[in-house]
Amino acid sequence: MKQHEDVCSIVEELKRLYPDGLCSLQYPKPYELLFAVRLAAQCTDERVNMVTPALFARFPTLESLAEADVSEVEQYIHSTGFFRAKARDIVAASRMMLEEYGGRVPDTMEELLKLPGVGRKTANLILGDVYHTPGVVVADTHCIRITGRLGLTDGTKDPVKVEQQLRQVLPPEESNDFCHRMVLHGRAVCMARKPDCANCTLRPWCDFYTKS
DNA sequence: ATCCCGAGGG
DNA sequence: CCCTCTGGAT
């Protein structure tokens, strides 16, 4: 599929392109990051960052979110889309974290997935960014698309398969940052509709460019 | 019409 | 595997 040397070149070039600013969703409290990621479903991070300041000012603690009126939460997050499900999940997950996890965000995939509205993508992001778990792969839409184009995966869109395939080629201590760089690269250069290959320095190692 | 750092349910 | 949930941007 892909030579180890090529993978290293891709990893190093991405580090050069995106040395820092690894996550555009940055929140002081783990549960705030969790809910920001939930809100980011089918919505840009930019828009999420527009609604969260007011939301977390109105509901400044996990307890206040657990007791919140769902319809009031809906108003704060309306513009992020899917607002009914998201609001319901935020309140329900707050209650579960208080009642079953001592008011903390869980640190295992199994427990994270029990929280309403938390799927693999959100769980992996928490495991990587909050708990710094080695070998975490966040297979979101950008990661799946770009690694598929590069040829780091076989082109599958199944997130679990992408996770597995990337874990086999990426150094465990690099995988989380690599995924964040996929997001940055996906927004700036390797867009879904019209990838800007002319301005992409990953060209030498990219199947999508080389074979088209 | 298609996409945005998805998740849940059938 | 499929579908639905939803608003906003391009």
UniProtKB/TrEMBL annotation:
What the record notes about the co-factor is: Binds 1 [4Fe-4S] cluster.
Listed under catalytic activity are: 2'-deoxyribonucleotide-(2'-deoxyribose 5'-phosphate)-2'-deoxyribonucleotide-DNA = a 3'-end 2'-deoxyribonucleotide-(2,3-dehydro-2,3-deoxyribose 5'-phosphate)-DNA + a 5'-end 5'-phospho-2'-deoxyribonucleoside-DNA + H(+)
Keyword 4Fe-4S tagged: yes
Gene Ontology molecular function, alphabetical: class I DNA-(apurinic or apyrimidinic site) endonuclease activity
Ranges for domain HhH-GPD? 39-188
Cofactor(s) recorded in Swiss-Prot or TrEMBL? [4Fe-4S] cluster
- Which enzyme type, at the first EC level? lyase
The protein's Enzyme Commission number: 4.2.99.18
Say which domain of life the source belongs to: Bacteria
InterPro entries in the record, alphabetically? DNA_glycosylase, Endonuclease3_FeS-loop_motif, HhH-GPD_domain, HhH_base_excis_C, HhH_motif, Nth
Keywords, in A-Z order = 4Fe-4S, DNA damage, DNA repair, DNA-binding, Endonuclease, Glycosidase, Hydrolase, Iron, Iron-sulfur, Lyase, Metal-binding, Nuclease
SUPFAM superfamilies noted in UniProt: DNA-glycosylase
Which Pfam families does the UniProt record give? HHH, HhH-GPD
The answer to keyword Thylakoid applying to this record is no
Q: Where does [4Fe-4S] cluster bind?
A: 190, 197, 200, 206
Bilayer-crossing residues are none
To which protein family does this belong? Belongs to the Nth/MutY family.
Tell me the function of this protein: DNA repair enzyme that has both DNA N-glycosylase activity and AP-lyase activity. The DNA N-glycosylase activity releases various damaged pyrimidines from DNA by cleaving the N-glycosidic bond, leaving an AP (apurinic/apyrimidinic) site. The AP-lyase activity cleaves the phosphodiester bond 3' to the AP site by a beta-elimination, leaving a 3'-terminal unsaturated sugar and a product with a terminal 5'-phosphate.
Protein's recorded name: Endonuclease III
Annotated organism of origin: Flavonifractor hominis
